[in-house]
Design a protein that fits this description.
6% of the residues lie in helices and 43% in strands. It is mostly beta strands.
Length: 235
């Protein structure tokens, strides 16, 4: 279905923000694939050309009208697949990410996304950890995991900024702290940067990365836009 025929929360799109390093929007996939189609590539709509490609021989699946995301598209990762890109440059902190997605299974160190620095995993990573209780965990050399995880769709906002790192869930601030200082040189969706472990069982509908700390009103605008777009209550 053409994105021109979908209701939208307004003319703004996050790619219009300054400092966008990458942006992946399931609604902007080329040629709008058929429901259930295998996704071997996911184009970067930021204009930087950082297009994701499948690794490991298994591809995630395109869902055209996902019931959990206001009947909008999402990419379904089925615990065996990953999409990756190497940036060709190293991006230092601060880095800010905004994502819409869900974990269908809690725990298990299942990665929604992971960055890479010299091929190493766990750089600007976001995953569900294996602790008791299980938490949403961001990691760039140290774990910051103040919040017990669930399987609901959320708007996740994550600021990787050393000792003042923080994440927000549906606009609500979680405890700030140290997530480490590691940079990122790539991106892996649905697994660690190895592409062979810690697979996501869940969905990603949207992900954008900014190379600075957005002002509070900018972050709030972005969260509100994503919440309205995907039918997620943002406070």
């Amino acid at each position: 279905m053409s994105p021109l025929n979908r209701s939208a929360p307004g003319p703004f799109h996050p790619v219009e923000l300054p400092g966008v390093e990458f942006c992946y929007d399931a609604e902007r996939l080329a040629n709008q694939p058929a429901d259930g189609a295998s996704i071997g590539t996911w184009a970067d709509c930021s204009g930087r050309g950082r297009h994701l490609a499948a690794v490991g021989g298994a591809n995630p699946v395109y869902v055209d009208r996902h019931a959990s995301y206001r009947q909008r598209p999402a990419i379904d990762f089925q615990a065996v697949d990953a999409l990756q890109v190497a940036f060709g440059v190293t991006l230092s902190q601060p880095m800010f990410y905004a994502a819409v997605g869900a974990f269908d299974v809690t725990g298990g160190d299942r990665f929604m996304f992971d960055g890479g620095s010299g091929g190493e995993p766990n750089r600007n990573a976001f995953f569900g950890d294996s602790g008791t209780p299980k938490h949403f965990d961001m990691y760039a050399g140290a774990s910051l995991n103040p919040t017990t995880m669930d399987t609901n769709p959320h708007v996740f906002s994550l600021l990787f900024n050393s000792t003042t790192s923080q994440y927000w869930i549906d606009g609500t601030a979680q405890t700030a702290g140290n997530a480490g200082t590691e940079p990122t040189a790539g991106l892996s969706l649905g697994a660690t940067t190895s592409g062979t472990s810690n697979f996501l069982d869940g969905q990603i509908a949207f992900l954008v990365g900014l190379n600075y700390i957005p002002a509070t009103d900018v972050r709030r605008r972005l969260e509100a836009w994503l919440g309205q777009r995907y039918g997620i209550t943002v406070t």
